[in-house]
Design goal:
Blueprint: H1 6-10, H2 19-36, E1 40-49, H3 50-54, H4 60-68, H5 81-88, E2 91-96, E3 105-113, E4 118-127, E5 130-136, E6 139-143, E7 149-155, H6 160-170, E8 175-182, E9 188-195, H7 203-208, E10 213-219
Parallel strand pairs: 1-2
Antiparallel strand pairs: 1-3, 3-4, 4-5, 5-6, 7-9, 7-10, 8-9
Helix pairs in contact: 2-4
């Protein structure tokens, strides 16, 4: 018999009418914001499927923008996210796509920092407020944001996995799940490491000392 948690029965704490279209939307953009970890000056949301058709009525637009401002799905500030973004000088836009994807609730969060750095994160709202991140800058990945997660962008070269794992061992962090995604052999890759306990932030600078590592992202909700 499958285990059913109380979360699955009652649903998430949230602002808005829909766990998929508001709570899930906020969670996707909040994780994207944590991955980017920079002062955002502009964010564009490209909406697919049901998101594109109903985002205004369900408050998906306010939830997405709120998440990109750092608000969790139960933060009452989501209701005023348009005004708050304006006060902060953050510009935003929503684009409806007719492209048909495998899931109806998909969004690309396209972020630009004040220093003109960019990142695009694609997320899927899978229901009940739960989400899945499925690509980073057009490289296919998969993680759910339910564990403290370390994301390392690096060159696909020998010894990288061992180096990352040794750094985690040095901080006494246990790996729950680990996957590696790459463009092609010897090209850019992303290692996604989900851990059993909170990850010490000091690991970011340690990892960045390796010349084959381009970026390190830490997602801890």
């Amino acid at each position: 018999m499958a285990f059913i948690s109380i979360f699955d029965v009652t649903g998430p704490n949230m602002v808005g009418p829909s766990s998929s279209h508001t709570a899930g939307a906020a969670a996707i953009s909040l994780i994207a914001k944590k991955m980017f970890d920079k002062d955002i000056k502009d964010v564009k949301f490209i909406l697919y499927g049901s998101f594109a058709k109903t985002y205004k009525g369900h408050g998906t637009d306010k939830a997405l923008l709120g998440g990109s401002l750092g608000f969790s799905s139960d933060d009452l500030r989501i209701r005023d996210s348009f005004d708050i973004a304006k006060d902060l000088g953050v510009t935003y836009s929503f684009e409806e796509s007719n492209l048909e994807l495998d899931h109806p609730n998909v969004v690309d969060v396209c972020m630009t920092s004040k220093c003109d750095e960019k990142m695009v994160v694609r997320g899927v709202s899978v229901g009940g407020g739960k989400i899945k991140i499925v690509s980073i800058d057009n490289i296919a990945v998969e993680f759910f944001g339910e564990y403290p997660t370390l994301i390392v962008e690096h060159l696909d070269t020998k010894g990288m996995i061992a180096f990352i794992c040794n750094c985690l061992q040095d901080t006494n962090t246990n790996i729950a799940f680990m996957k590696v995604y790459r463009d092609a052999k010897g090209k850019k890759a992303h290692s996604i490491i989900e851990c059993d306990e909170k990850i010490d932030k000091s690991i970011i600078e340690t990892l960045k000392q390796n010349e084959n590592i381009n970026n390190v992202m830490l997602v801890q909700i």
